[in-house]
Hints:
Elements: E1 2-5, E2 11-18, E3 21-26, H1 31-43, E4 53-56, E5 59-63, E6 69-71, H2 74-79, H3 87-92
Amino acid sequence: MFFDENKNGSLVAIVVWHADDFMIGGYTEHPKFKGDFDYIKSLYDWGDWESERFDQCGVPVEQFADCSIRLNQHRYLQELEPLPASKARLQRGASLAV
C-alpha cells in the first residue's frame, strides 16, 4: 500500500494492489494526486482503466456519488462449500482449522 498526504497530513492519494491488480484513489483535483497518478501510469503499459463499478481480484467494487465504496462478496459466499471432516475428527472435538 502507498499513500500520500498534503502539508497538513490529510490523505490525498492511496494505492493498493495485489499482483497486477491496482486500485488508486484520492482527491483527483489535488496536484499531488495528479502527480502520483501520472507517475504510476508512466510505469507500465496498462490496459483499460475502470472506475465506479469493476471487479478487483474477483470482488465486485462499487463507488457511489458520495465517494463511499462497497465491496461485495455475495458471489464468493454463494460458491463456498463445506469442508469435509472425518467422523473420527468430529468426535474428538478437534478444531477443524488446519
